[in-house]
Amino acid sequence: MNVVDKRMIVIDGVPLPSVLDERMIHDVVHGFYDKIRADDLLGPVFDRVIAAEEWPHHLAKMCDFWSSVLLRTSRYQGRPLPPHLALPDVGEAHFRRWLTLFRATVEHRCPPQVAALFFDRALRIAHSFRLAIAFSRGENTMDIQPILAETL
Length: 152
Description:
Elements: E1 10-11, E2 14-15, H1 22-38, H2 42-49, H3 55-71, H4 81-85, H5 92-109, H6 112-136
């Protein structure tokens, strides 16, 4: 008998839904960045920093990132913050749009429990990045409030 040792992943005290797998992460990442690239606000930002031929690499990196965040695979070895710090014109409106598009993607592609898990992580990441960007610009980080889902 062949028994597969599948470790249970627990996030915030709740076992990770078994339906969340690499295929779902791939579909979310690719669907999300399709929306990003077509967006009037975010598309130009990404076009300035990611050449057309670099998109496959970027998408693979983002799949690794989300796999590491949610499936605990440790595949992502990068540092996600520095590229964002190098974008001088990115502000709250960009993060709000990013979150809006991300929520629409996960709600379309994932069961509700998985969509909520993805979106909770996205909200946390957005707040962390916004704080770091404000700090790097010498702004008062006490003025940076989390973006709440109900305000999108």
